Amino acid sequence: MTSTKLELHKTSLVLKIIAVLWMVWVFLDYWFKHPLYPLGVTNTFMAIPLMHMMIGVIAYIVIDQVSYRRISWLTCIGMFLAFLWGGTLVNLLLYSPVDYSFMSILSYIGRTILFAIFLALLTLSAKQLGGFIVNGVLLPGFNIATSVHIALGLCCFMILIFIILAFHVFHPVVIGLILFFPIPLFYKNTWEDISRLHKPIGASDRLSIIGIVSLILIILMNAMTFAHTLSPFPVGFDAQNYYINLPKLMTEAGMLQKGYQPYNWSLLQSAAYGLVGRVEMLLILSWFGLILVQWCTYEVGTRLMKIPRGLVLLGVALFTYMPSVTTQASQELKVDLGLTFMLLAMVLSGFALLKNLRERPTRQSMVGLAVIVGVLGGIALGIKLTAVIALFAFIAILWYQGLGRLGFLGVFFISMAIVFFAQLDTRAGLRVYHSSVSWLQVVALFIGIGCLFYAIKEHTRKGLKLLYLSVVIAMSCSIVFVPWMIKNYTEIKNPSFIQLLNGTNHGPVMNMKVIDRNYKKSKE
Amino acid sequence: MKQVIKYGLLSFLLLMVATLATTAQKKDKQQNFEEEIIRYLGYEEIPVRYISLPYDATMYHNVEGNFMDIGFVLLMFIPLIFLWRTRSRIWRIVLFTMLGLMWIFSLGSSHVLAKTGEKLFNDGEMIPSYLAGGGGNFLADLVSRVYVFAGAIYAPIGSLLATITDSGDHITYVLLLGILYILYFVYSKFSQQAAGNYLLGALLLFYCFFMLILSAGIIWYGFLLFPLLYLEVTRYAQVSKFYKSLLLGAGGLFIVMSYFLKVSNTKYRNDIAMGTVQPPVLAYNFSESGESDVYEGYFKNIGPAIEKINAEDSTLIFQSGTFTTFLIRNNSERVFKDGILNMHSQMVDRYKRKSVVNEAMKANGFKYIVVSPVLHIMDQTPDKSLTKKFQKMVSYLHDNAGLQLLATDRLVQVADENGNSSNEYDFLFGPDVQVVQNGSYAIFELL
């Protein structure tokens, strides 16, 4: 492991005291500012945590004693369903006035299994397609994280769904073919993956106690959030107004919707709804982003940061239990978790590129990895435009590795200039608070260009290689984003770059002038 | 290394020179952004908004709600990691000073909660008078006293910053660049890690900086940060038992707290426990109730009104702040969203009389008005501009002969002629109105 390389110095007593005092203060302040936590404990229907605890203890004993601290996908799925059914049924039987029947319970169990199978097949299908693109087309024989395969597969689905929506051939049969064609096409790999479901995941080393407990906790929260998605109606404000509403409108109309910013993740939701015909699928696909983020974070921790698996799972559990994340996955149900997954996959493939550049760069592997980074970045950009910052950040560290800190500073300042020239800060209304932007953008541009120019002058060959790779990334990113710009152009007929990025507003076009004009007209 | 310092300082110097050379240009306030987005960032002096943001975002200082809750673990450990990584005493003092300033800025410019849940702002008066009047329990009072202490230090700094920055400034970005440079310098100077990790740190710093200046404190815009930061926090548990004990203690506590929050589903500003799954969803999954029953479960009485709206194809709906869009057929073409009541406020200002506003709306194709009775709750602006617009809307809707209330879930207590009171669903506001349930929507038809 890398423990010898980590720097955490022997701390003096003073620092330890400061640390403890700081933590105590933060906790006290947090506790008083969040009165819902104590209310949460007193308001809980206590039989539900007892049921969860019982399932958790059984799961722990099974993992520790029966499978010797090795965990398979089947164990995870079993735990998930046990938590889901256990918690929900206790809630139903003990605390709810709902008239239920034995058949309705069976029907619920059956539906959850079907939804789980749908997600598993979608993941499997995306993995096969992504695997083919990586190992069959771009990087033969290259070992890259599984979550990158899945991300690439999903990217392809999104592109294909965009096309069928644009050409009005959005039919369940077509959707089914698109989402699941890789399964029969790559049946050997599919079967291999299915037959591995009962085998231990990942490395052969055994999980630590921290790891097992964290994993059980992660699956518990996944089940609790999933329970909310089995509804025909999202609870969150943005979900109802935008993120669940938009794919529903698309499915009902069988075509892309006029207006809105690019919405790649909604395409996936729309296809799932179009195929299954139940609104729950829209919500589930939004929740699914959380599972993908957890998976990708696990791979970032183990593959990239080389952290022991137990601690990685603790990190994933801490992320999962953030109330803003649990709310996103159960009530808000936006696309941010899907976006985070795409960006994490981009980071993973980006670091594979950096490692490749350090160790054994061949032209094909370099370009192949750069294309993957660009495609993932472009699709992420088509989910939310804020993804552009992650793309800039990756290019900055690419230059950092190649040309040192001067390269990093160069890209940093150029990114800053681009952000200000493209007026990204005005989207949140921040420009008015910073009178310095008008000159800062120019100064940043000059400093950035100066730094890069100097760095390239010092290391011309390396610099040109980095420039080439940056262009490949930018081009791949543009290619997958351009369809949205074309769509926006057909709607607004205006070649303004900012409008081509953002699209037009949806809904009736109204302002005071229009209202006044129509009013006066009605009076004539 | 020398070159890096040289170029870094040169860049910084250039920015400072440009700062002095440029004359200040104040710009008009953007009221819309202030009401809708800047509330996430806060309304303090401009540099303080950014510097205190990590602390504010953790402590609900700006916007409250589970969707904004990022937990306390990151705020506890990220500063400690920076302090512990640093070998040099001088740099430790620099970092410690920066942490102290963030802490003072945040505490000094925010609030504590009274027993009633009311916000007591740290303006030098509210908290001391609350404490003098008995305060809360011992620990709550202790926290409040620390706030008063920080407020006393912050007051002169805040006044100074207010004179420099006002409504728009030249120094904030330069200051943030300086802070980023110090963190970057410390991170790179004291790092002897594997290259991958080292670069990941640089990526995180880059991303943090841009999210800080672009996201306006809306945390889900920067979701990428959180899994990576949590991994960064857990990574150090490999090398220090003391650190690991602290992390397991704090992390375990956080997970337990968050679990109970989720399993109870207690709603903000509403102390009712909902159970693992909310009752309408449970009924949908296990009984005969259909989709419309679920809507009805969330929005009482809405069914007939929505049916009426959906029976028409082309009439327009004027909507403000409600959740109901999803229920309206073809809503992307029919619903005009006046989220923070700008358009309505302008119409009232322009046409003055209710009947004329009604006519103007009808002339533009509107047939329904859907409004939230709790829209003003999100108003965090110092001048309460959104509340004023909301009051304008309420007075327009009240006693308007050209409008008919189709449905609402706002429950109020009304008294009959004999003085007997009963609960009714109505869109009533005012000091005499006893509200039983605030409600979430009201649908009016333009007659």
List keywords for this structure.
heterodimer; A: 524 residues; mainly alpha; 23 helices; globular; disordered N terminus; B: 447 residues; alpha+beta; 2 domains; 5-stranded mixed beta sheet; 3-stranded antiparallel beta sheet; 54% helix; elongated
SSE blueprint and pairings:
The complex is a heterodimer of chains A (524) and B (447).
Chain A: H1 13-33, H2 36-43, H3 47-66, H4 73-95, H5 102-138, H6 146-166, H7 172-180, H8 182-185, H9 187-195, H10 209-229, H11 237-243, H12 245-253, H13 264-276, H14 280-304, H15 309-320, H16 323-332, H17 336-359, H18 363-381, H19 387-421, H20 437-458, H21 460-492, H22 497-502, H23 512-523
Helix pairs in contact in A: 3-4, 3-10, 4-10, 5-6, 6-7, 6-13, 6-18, 7-13, 10-14, 10-15, 10-16, 12-13, 13-14, 14-15, 14-16, 14-17, 17-18, 17-19, 18-19, 18-21, 19-20, 19-21, 20-21
Chain B: H1 2-21, H2 31-36, H3 46-51, H4 53-58, H5 73-85, H6 89-108, E1 111-113, E2 119-121, H7 126-132, H8 138-165, H9 172-189, H10 195-214, H11 225-235, H12 241-264, H13 279-286, H14 291-298, H15 302-310, E3 316-320, H16 331-334, E4 335-337, H17 342-351, H18 354-363, E5 366-371, H19 385-397, E6 403-408, E7 411-415, E8 421-425, E9 434-437, E10 442-446
How does this model look, in words?
The complex is a heterodimer of chains A (524) and B (447). With 524 residues, chain A is an all-alpha fold. Chain A has a domain at 52-96 and 108-366. Helix content of chain A is 76%, strand content 0%. Chain A has 23 helices and no strands. In chain A, helix 3 (47-66) crosses helix 10 (209-229) and helix 10 (209-229) packs antiparallel against helix 14 (280-304). The longest helix of chain A is centred in the N-terminal third of the chain and has 37 residues, at 102-138. Chain A is globular, with a radius of gyration of 25 Å. Chain A starts with 12 loop residues before the first helix and ends with a helix. Chain B is of the alpha+beta class. Chain B has two domains: 2-239, no CATH class; 300-446, no CATH class. Chain B is 54% helix and 10% strand. Chain B has a five-stranded mixed sheet with strand order 4-3-5-10-6, sandwiched between helices. In chain B, strands 8-7-9 form a three-stranded antiparallel sheet, with no helix packed on it. In chain B, a hairpin with a 5-residue loop joins strand 7 (411-415) and strand 8. The termini of chain B are far apart. At the A-B interface, helix 1, helix 2, helix 3, helix 4 and helix 5 of A face helix 1, helix 2, helix 5, helix 8 and helix 9 of B.
